[in-house]
């Protein structure tokens, strides 16, 4: 067996073989795959083999589309059959919320180039005649849906990889993975040790155990999953064409033709986690004992939806484990803190996503970044706070909601609350309605009186409407207060701190006592982060950014480390409050003896507020006069007491994230992972105004953004006023210009201050002119909208900067 190689992929399922193939496709031939048994062992061999494009995340949907289109290419390359059945599929909606979800998904598909269609119940009866359409409002038809042969497809990936120079070693058990001092790895197997630059964990059911060999915890858990194959059914084998797939969210089932009968699988509510304390190494080509009691209610529902099943015999029951992450998406990419160690795990929909996962990981490894934003499946989206005790209930919840409606404002309850600030109990007593970000409890809004402590999930305006309007009014007319806990915070220290920041950040690094806003870029000039940089002294800087991107950002900082610079993640070691509104200055002046009234916009200053040492920054995401006040969390309650007591003299109210996201629309402020993400460039989003093209530093991404600056961006982020009704833009709605889809929304909502529905979106740069009339599709209906350029509040910035 070969003892040195560039990449070792551990795991011979469909994902491992896809990664191996894509590495060779992108030019890395010195790669090998190790499989402890035969290829397809684990989950791959017993998978139902279905594939579809429908996914709530648009990038995941696009990658699923790539995966499906790849199969014919694999067949052409290898001469092997993947057993493709492109039969199409329809997802059913039996209530208005499910139908709204399908309308929203269809809208996204327009600009993605996916040819899906909303169909009526009558059309469903013709497309999928075994379906009982009683109570069905409509459906979404996708001609790309289908199924394949799991084994044949996996072996086609393997053959294509071998044709590209890859080696595959079966019956080779990995015992240890050990990192050397130089960052390379020794993979110890029962056939010898392999020295490699990169390790890819594609261990599937054993991914947790493989990760543990390197001291890594991956948040994964296997779930038992069951599907049934029927005997021959005349209504199926007498058809001229193969019956399409049917996804029935109400029945938590998927159905397709299998030979002369049907295959139906369930995501049942009384589900069961498997191998809670670890996957046995001797498990592989076994199935679990049948457990029809677990799916009894699901089967009864299926009999009503698909009456032919009630008289059909059962040919076989397939009951096996699949591995899930807490949110159901894969765990892909470089593992933070482990150079050279890559994850390709948690791909529960391997035949829908495996090709896209393989392509993205191969691009990441060979080129340093992917062609599209992969945050939804980045292994770094979970921090080091996550534990098996959190993972298991979240995986169970995700399994149970696999076919549930996914609402844009929904807050899932499992494994909460976990992480709380010192303000949690106080805010809870004030009527906080909670959300969660990166495991941390965050106030969405405050209910008062007899208002419910629960926001109704909806695609339309929710019962948070009045509370949000109330909080917005308080900020704009008096003063509002909220926590700054959901900022990621970093401390950069050392003699080389300024020079390092000049290289890492594209913008100007501020002088002492000042802050600046700056994008952080990828080598290809895409947005890697949206930061505030504060200069505390010449060797000490504080950075703030999105709280949920901590592991992502710390991984990037580590990949670009410098000897004379230290970067610490202090996100949970620093907390405090934001106060904002026309009376914010009066509140602050009254609670400190330090001079703060003369602070200019983007000044920073140390001050003692009450008894608490604080860092005060003159900036606010509300777009109003405001201050961010940071302190030690141990003193946060004391800081609250003094701010709140004085605030009562000025009409202070607490406000949450729903109000924050409405307030930012008044100034057309973008937000991370909406307007700003690795999918976009600074010139497209207006972030180029924060780039210092004159500074004497070869900052990361400089060549790319200078080239774009010279050529000009092809699209531009703009704002629209929308004549909406009872629903606002959430994101990815198509923008129609001259009766053609020419752009899409990045986010939006309702400006309670201006009492207008606002959308932010990307359109062709040459059409981005004030007054442009467009239509924006919201839940299947096209609404007139007008491009606006003047902010809805404080248009000249006099209050924010004054």
UniProtKB/TrEMBL annotation:
Residues 6-364 form the FAD dependent oxidoreductase domain. Residues 715-794 form the Aminomethyltransferase C-terminal domain. Keywords: Oxidoreductase. It comes from the Bacteria. The keyword Protein transport does not apply. One of its GO terms (molecular function) is dimethylglycine dehydrogenase activity. One of its GO terms (cellular component) is cytoplasm. Residues 423-695 form the GCVT N-terminal domain. Residues 367-420 form the FAD dependent oxidoreductase central domain. PANTHER family: DIMETHYLGLYCINE DEHYDROGENASE, MITOCHONDRIAL (PTHR13847:SF187), SARCOSINE DEHYDROGENASE-RELATED (PTHR13847). Belongs to the GcvT family. This is Dimethylglycine dehydrogenase. It comes from Roseovarius lutimaris.
